Amino acid sequence: MTQVATPDSLPADTGNIELAFNGREYKTERRGDKFFVRARSQGGSYGKPQQIVITTGSHNLQILWLETGEGRTLQQFPFAYIVPEKMWAPTLATFLIPPNVKEYYSTGAWNGGCMDCHVTQGQSRFLAGTKWDTHVAEFGIACEACHSEGRKHIELNRNPIRRFRIHLTTKSDPTVANPADMKGPESGLACGQCHSIWAFNNMTDKIDFNRHGVDFRPGADDLSQRFVVQPNTADHVEQKDFIRRTEPDFFQNRFWDDGMIRVTGREFNGVQASPCFRSGEFSCISCHEMHLDSPGQTDAKTWARTGQLRPKMDSDAACLQCHKDMSPRLVAHTHHAADSSGSRCYNCHMPRTTYGLLHAMRSHQVSSPTVHESIAYGRPNACNLCHLDQTLAWTAQYLHAWYKQPVPELSQDDRTIAAAVQWILKGDAGQRALITWGMGWESAQKIAGSDWLYPYLIYSMVDPYPAVRFDAWKSLRTLPGFVDFPFKYTDDDHSLRETAERAYEKWQREVRNVNTVYPPETAIDSDGRVKQDVFQRLRSERDDKPIFLAE
Amino acid sequence: MSRPSKPTRHIGEPAARNLRFGWWSLLVFLSMGAVLETLQGFKIGWYLDVGNETRRLMFTLAHAHGTLLAAVNIIAGLSVRTERLTLRPSVSFALIWAAILLPAGFFLGGVITYDGDPGLGVWLVPIGAALLFYSIARIALDLSKRK
Q: CA-CA distance, A449 to A418, in Å (whole number)?
């Protein structure tokens, strides 16, 4: 969502911060209820103040936008506020993007991109160069975003007799769209109009969208000027070929190689590709709700911080709504104790394989874990995301024994070294981010043990990608002895190395139990050191292709 | 020497009815206040959940109107003692029924709710409001006529 910048909508210290990044220094000040930023090159004098006019994001990350003096064109304040940590960081360091990228979402980016989904009924209105004349109906995600146009509905329902007639008879009002009354695909698309990877059908539609805003109205069965991009489906072949030609990294930056979505905020791609979706009933509101009107719903803050779920939908109840027969044969199906994390539907069928906003998130493509997905597409499978200390061979053996899955051909490393260790040492930045975050997951720590996680998390605190370093630090803080460990994940390389060395010393001297015996799959010696031959070999094989998870 | 006895102040039957009703009504609605506090105290979802905001509002209105109108009935009953006011039977009747229908409408409107709208019981509220308007207006007029 977008909010006008006010003392209530901005982080508390916004009027009094001094930050430096990329050779420039920034200083903010508050005048009444308005906030301003001045910038200067290091050593120079501060320039003209620019007003902070709006902010996007509210639960996880807040990005501020500045006036430019060029009409309604906005410029990004280069620092974002990480809400749960109550800290400012360079915006570039809050996305999983290559460390050499120097600019992401700059002047005009809000007008030309963010506002497509972060407002209701926006019109970008490109003028020329980096100039825009943007208009919006409402800054927040308001009623009409999901319920379509409301003028007639509001006018007619001023009459209480009409309202009561509806309450007591049809219970649904034809003058307004209601995702709860729609079939699954239409209902899902009401959310998916934003929560998906979408593209324009053609240049004419793009221009129309830019000038007049979105044509789609909730209740429709397609996005009108746009379409939901699924890499491997047979629709929109021409448009997808065009994307491949003009933006070669488009799919790699958003999807796993089998077409499963890997960035957060685009959950409808996953929902649409789920087998459950074929029933025609399954949609986002099978588990989520936007109005907190279910019995047992708690306060708005909790709801907002727990995935905006309906009550009890953070449990097996979400799946058992349809899979009613599964309840009595739960253990026979899962082969795990009924009360264990291995028997929770979500953990196996919606593992955390999407990433964004500095954390791993559950995939919304309901699927079953396979070793094949890890070997062929590099996606950590659900089994090894929990059993961090086990090899792919171990997983393959159980999936074969329990579910008759074929055992794929596996390398020597896949038979002897834990999958998580391989991903963290030789995986690409996307895999490393998922695993460093996953090492802080309580359920995984209980199953796989946590004694051996320290050296890998400390090693990851010097990863070239800031997002990986941030997750490593967050996960390290879940372990005994490091709860309050200070670390500035955006520091320079020298400081990062120093802090990591300090953390390692602390672990070796103060935290590590010298009697701990580490499983051989973790590649850690009895003295708590990662086996150097394994480490050097896997590290040298690290997949350093640039990863740019475009949220 | 015996003191002369005070002149007996006779409260008319309608006024006495309003006085009795007022005190009993006050008891009922103050008790309702205690019940609402208890629902708050024990965090009862049926009353406190985010989706039950309309119910909370309706019950609060029932409690407030019931208490206030009980006090109005008591004041009306006592006002007769000033000998400046005679409570007409119709006014007495209207005041009592206003004090029943208004809070009852809000209360029933909160028992079953429809999204942002209260339940059907809320239709008792305008009837009660009309009775209240009649009785207050009548009292004001009657008082104005007396010198």
A: 13
Question: What is the percent of chain B with per-residue pLDDT over 70, rounded to a whole number?
Answer: 90
Pairing of the two strands B117-118 and B113-114: antiparallel
Interface ipTM: 0.72
Residues in B touching A294 (Cβ below 8 Å):
51
Q: Are A134 and A115 contacting, i.e. CB atoms less than 8 angstroms apart?
A: yes
pLDDT at A13 over 70: yes
- Residues in B closer than 8 angstroms to A292, CB to CB, are 49-51
* pTM for this predicted structure: 0.87
List CB contacts (< 8 A) between B117 and chain A.
160, 163-164, 167
Q: Phi-psi bin for A535: left (phi > 0), alpha (psi -120 to 50), beta?
A: alpha
CA distance A292 to chain B (A): 6
- Which residue from B45, B114, B117 is facing A296, i.e. has the nearest CB? B45
Average pLDDT over every residue of A252-273: 96
Q: Give the gap in angstroms from C-alpha B50 to the nearest C-alpha of chain A.
A: 6
**Which residue has better confidence, A403 or A59?**
A403
Chain A residue closest to B112 (CA)?
A167
Nearest to B45 among A163, A293, A295 (CB): A295
Query: Please, what is the average pLDDT of chain A?
Result: 95
Contact A164 B46 (CB under 8 A): no
Pick from A160, A167, A293: which is nearest to B51 by CB? A293
Rg of chain A in Å (alpha carbons): 25
Best mutation target among A154, A159, A164, A299 (most B Cβ atoms within 10 Å) is A164
A420's tokens: 């998580």
How far is residue A189 from each of residues A162, A219, A224, A269, B71, measured CA to CA in Å? 29, 8, 11, 10, 56
Quickly tell me which residue has 């009595």 as its tokens. A328
Pair A385, A444: CB distance under 8 Å: yes
- Model confidence at A550: pLDDT above 90: no
CB atoms within 10 A of CB A509: 8
Calculate the alpha carbon distances from A526 to A187, A269, A320, A418, A460 in Å.
Answer: 55, 45, 45, 17, 21
B147 band by pLDDT with thresholds 50, 70 and 90: low
- Residue A306, pLDDT score: 84
Distance between CA B131 and CA B89 in Å, rounded? 13
pLDDT band at B8 (very low <50, low <70, confident <90, very high): very low
Cβ-nearest to A295 among B49, B115, B117? B49
Q: Answer whether residue B12 shows pLDDT above 80.
A: no
Radius of gyration of chain B from its Cα atoms, rounded to whole angstroms: 19
* Binary contact (A299, B50; C-beta < 8 A): yes
